[in-house]
């Protein structure tokens, strides 16, 4: 089982930026595809971005061009750089791999 711990959430104004981090336990991180999901109040959890062990990334249309997923295999950490944030990006953001979820980190975009 993999333990995932997200951090970096907070309150930001529209147009601002945040970088989320997800630290993973275990020795399989470098071989694992990692993903970010989010869940807004009253909505279903939705996929945001994914990165393979080889570094190939893909994004939901709603965040494409604004968010960047990356990974640091030496640190067992995956990142989500979020730019040009909008109020509709407000959600709890979760890290996911191999049927394991983190506890989530709250992102609030508001003036």
Shape: globular
Instruction: Tell me the Rg in angstroms.
Output: 13 Å
Number of DSSP-assigned strands: 11
N-to-C SSE string, H for helix and E for strand: EEEEEEEEEEE
What's the N-to-C terminus distance? 40 Å
Labels describing this entry:
single chain, 111 residues, mainly beta, 7-stranded mixed beta sheet, 4-stranded antiparallel beta sheet, 0% helix, globular
Describe this structure in words.
The protein has no helices and eleven strands. The protein is globular, with a radius of gyration of 13 Å. The termini are far apart. The chain is mostly beta strands and 111 residues long. The mean pLDDT is 96. The strands form two sheets. Strands 2, 4, 5, 6, 9, 10 and 11 form a seven-stranded mixed β-sheet that branches. A four-stranded antiparallel β-sheet has the order 1-3-8-7, with no helix packed on it. The protein has strands at residues 4-7, 10-12, 18-24, 34-39, 46-51, 57-59, 67-72, 77-82, 91-97, 100-101, 105-109.
Annotate the secondary structure layout.
Elements: E1 4-7, E2 10-12, E3 18-24, E4 34-39, E5 46-51, E6 57-59, E7 67-72, E8 77-82, E9 91-97, E10 100-101, E11 105-109
Short description:
The protein is mainly beta and about 110 residues long. The chain has strands at about 5, 10, 20-25, 35-40, 45-50, 55-60, 65-70, 75-80, 90-95, 100, 105-110.
